[in-house]
Amino acid sequence: MGRSRIDGQPPGESDVHSLGFLVYSRNGKAISPLCAHVNYSFALTWHPDGLTFATGNQDKTYSIWDIQNLSKSVTTIKGNLGAIRSIYYTSDARFMGMAELV
């Protein structure tokens, strides 16, 4: 449930919990896979410092990522009621809000 597989591999041999990919906007090439969540991702927002970002997902969690180390999220926090559909940082970066689907 909620798993992606690497293209060209038989199901079950290379299953990963894959959120997606961070992609370089100038050429469309994938920089790194983002693996932290099970199921779909619905939200992403960049921190005002431009060095971290947050993702929100169907699995009722949100994760904070550091662009200098994308092999795993800095932290993953469980939401309360439902899928995380929206995330927003305030411009002064003091607060981050999230909205869950209920």
Automatic annotation (TrEMBL):
Sequence ranges of the WD repeats? 34-75
Q: Does the keyword Membrane apply?
A: no
Q: Which domain of life is it from?
A: Eukaryota
Keyword Cytoplasm listed = no
Task: State the InterPro entries in the record.
Answer: WD40/YVTN_repeat-like_dom_sf, WD40_repeat_dom_sf, WD40_rpt
Return the Gene3D superfamilies for the record.
YVTN repeat-like/Quinoprotein amine dehydrogenase (2.130.10.10)
Assigned keywords, A-Z? WD repeat
Database matches in Pfam families? WD40
Q: What is this protein called?
A: Uncharacterized protein
Q: Say which species the protein is native to.
A: Solanum verrucosum
